[in-house]
Write a structure and sequence with these properties.
This protein is mainly α and about 70 residues long. It has helices spanning about 5-30, 35-60, 65. The protein has one domain (about 5-65). Helix 1 packs antiparallel against helix 2.
């Protein structure tokens, strides 16, 4: 089994474990059900924006001249 296959098969379980752990810790700290869910949604929004920006820059070639690479 190569690295990419192993990473691809274990990544969803790791993401779910991280999300559940974050929700539980924030629930214990705040005592609220809404705040942990909002925090998780904001983290997902930030991750999506970051990955989208990386795709635009490195796959579409935006700012490739300034950054000195070719897509």
């Amino acid at each position: 089994m190569d690295f990419r296959t192993s990473l691809g098969s274990h990544l969803p379980a790791a993401a779910v474990l991280l999300a559940v752990t974050t929700l539980l810790i924030l629930f214990v700290m705040t005592g609220s059900l809404v705040l942990p869910v909002l925090a998780l949604l904001m983290n997902l929004l930030t991750l999506g924006a970051t990955l989208g920006l990386l795709v635009v820059v490195f796959q579409k070639g935006f700012l490739s001249g300034v950054l000195g690479f070719s897509p």
